[in-house]
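During the reporting period the student researcher (J.K.) took over the structure-prediction task from the postdoctoral fellow and processed the backlog of single-chain submissions. One of the processed entries is reproduced below for the supervisory committee.
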Amino acid sequence: MKTEIVLEKLREPGCIIYTPKVSQEISLLREYIENFSVYNPNEYISAWDGDYCVKLHEKDIYRVFSYDKKVYAETIKDTLVLKLRLYQFEELVSEKKWDRFIRISNTDIVNIEHVEKFDLSFTGIITVVLKNGTRVQVSRRYMKKIKEKILKC
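J.K. obtained the following structure tokens:
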């Protein structure tokens, strides 16, 4: 198998597999590459699932929200408790240089990578639809920052 490394200014590395046909080995290789990740302490935060502490990677978090005086991190599978306030999560994200997160309301911060679309209603209400189907309303107060963030992406 021929391999090649090309250096480019990308945010994260990627892999392209050239093959004449998709075989079982190629499918396994693809799955391995997709699941491969080198975690370092700056790439995850701790969340709680009952009594268990779970490592959460930036790309696994769809949104962080507060409800009933607690802060939760929503992933594709679970909703986990964070032992932080929303402003503390924002500070932590800033320290770790996780630039994918944006505050959309007083109670919600979303990961831009997991936004499927912005739904605009006739009444002027803007709703963010995430890839997992979650719908979250956007506060007009945060629209300017959201527009700036989207234009950067």
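The committee noted the following: The longest strand covers residues 44-49.
J.K. will present the remaining backlog at the next meeting.
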